[in-house]
Task: structure prediction
Amino acid sequence: MSEERLSFQAEVSRLLDIVAHSLYSEKEVFLRELISNASDACDRLRYAALTQPELSAEDPDLKIRLTTDAEAKTLTVADNGVGMNREDLIENLGTIARSGTAAFMNKLTGDAKKDVGLIGQFGVGFYSAFMVSDKVVVLTRKAGESQGWRWESDGRGDFTVSEAADVPRGTRVEMHLKADEGEFLEESRLRRIVQKYSDHIALPIVYGEGEEAQSLNKASALWTRSRNEITPEQYKEFYHHVGHAFDEPWLTMHWRAEGKIEYTSLLFVPATKPFDLFNPDRRHRVKLYVRRVFITDEAEGLVPPYLRFLRGVVDSEDLPLNVSREMLQHNPMLAKIRSGIVRRVLGDLVKKADDAEQAEAYATFWENFGAVLKEGLYEDYEHREQITKLLRFRTTGAEGLVSLDDYVGRMKEGQDAIFYITGDDIDTLRRSPQIEGFKARGVEVLLLTDPVDEFWIPSVAEYKDKKFKSVTRGGADLSRIKAADEPEKPAEDKPAENDLGSLVAALKLTLADAVKDVRISERLTDSPVCLVADEGDMDMHLERLLKQHRQLDTSAQRILEVNPTHPLIRRLTDLAAKDGVSDGLEDVAWLLLDQARIVEGEQIPDPAAFSRRLAVMLEKGLLTGLAA
Result:
């Protein structure tokens, strides 16, 4: 096969410029990234060889080798791991940000400080080689195949792929160093970098060829060491390796479980959201080892989906070494390990949440992962109580985050429910007419903006015998929750009951096919009208979500509530009592309904009719004003 020239699947010239000049504060970390990739390749071969021993038979002693050539000015990082074929090369080295390249590139702003964090989430470690190289050559052969391949690029927009002969199994990354990067040809410099960043790698990292090659690391799995032997810096570098991350871990959890089942866990909670946190597959990224042998990083059932933000390793002493991924799904030992992991992780998170000195740090964690953690409320009944302790909310009663215990402790006399409202945006919810009466009485309302909120609340239903109740449903009895300092409304502000009855009847007659009912509202103080769902109907925000995702075709009719103390409603009450249903009142009725729809973020069914009625009302108002 002749040499084939291909283009990168992204604006590589722009991206590589950011990688080369902004992504890392220290150039030396390119070596960390390449060693991590080599370690992963060896781990994957070791797992594959459990069921296909012939894959590693030719060279079973897995290691990572660094070599230099001062005359050619090259540094090579080589492994005898699983290797790549042509398709792997193009997919892994020709595509930056494999999960949605276009979306990824669109997020880049050109602001280096902002872009650094984003790029660091998309696994571009290999491209850090271009920080110190004018050209990178990759020679590789996949385990079980005979054909070797050569990949070459100067990082300026394209690369070449061609067949190569006499390539050993694994991958060799050969960097042709820039003129001013000669320091990376020195053995002592490479040794210091390996000991700083990669000492935890559980494979031998050697320098040189043959029997004279010198070991550069301890080659012992970090999680097997005692905690008092590990420095914070070593934990951080292991997190970078195992999580392919660039931030610092927000929480580090390292423990050994002993008893009927023995396993060691070294798990991290990231400080920032992983880019794949909301992928539909909801997979975790915790690696499973059996007696220090890598098995898989896709062990279904090892970590529940609502803890998928965790990074790290779990090493079992009891699972069979030749366990397959299919057998893992039904292994009772794995279920017990999972239970232990969940109990420990939630326990450590509860300690953080309960520590007043950690309130700000916990708020950061909650903003990052709260929406994911809430999935456990309807998926994991066994641990629901612990998860509930972790919940934090924005509310109408406080600026910061509030726990359910805080909320219940501040409930008003006569209040028997935990009130909440769901929507897409906090600021919009704060201005919602449905919460006006609650705010007037000092009743706190939870402001919920995560789609998952629509699903866990019906599942949980109550907390400490207080039911969750949406303020957008009818039947909110606020009369029993009168605040002590609430002023009594003047009698002249309240229309007579008979007059109100006439207005309600007129509105019902006019809007008969558009609303389920018209009622006098207790919840409104400033707005003239609002829409609410009937007690047995679906919440309005949930209905909109389902319709957006084409899970629902029909809409339930809503109840129109009117504010009897609003000047507009008082004026309409007088007109209804005097003239009954007139053309003018009909137009105003439809305008009020459309206004309520707009506030709810719903579409107006007939924009032309709305525009006509609005123009008529404005014309009448202007003429009256001019005449006066």
Remarks:
- The domain at 393-487 is CATH 3.40.50.11260 (Rossmann fold).
- The chain has a mean pLDDT of 85.
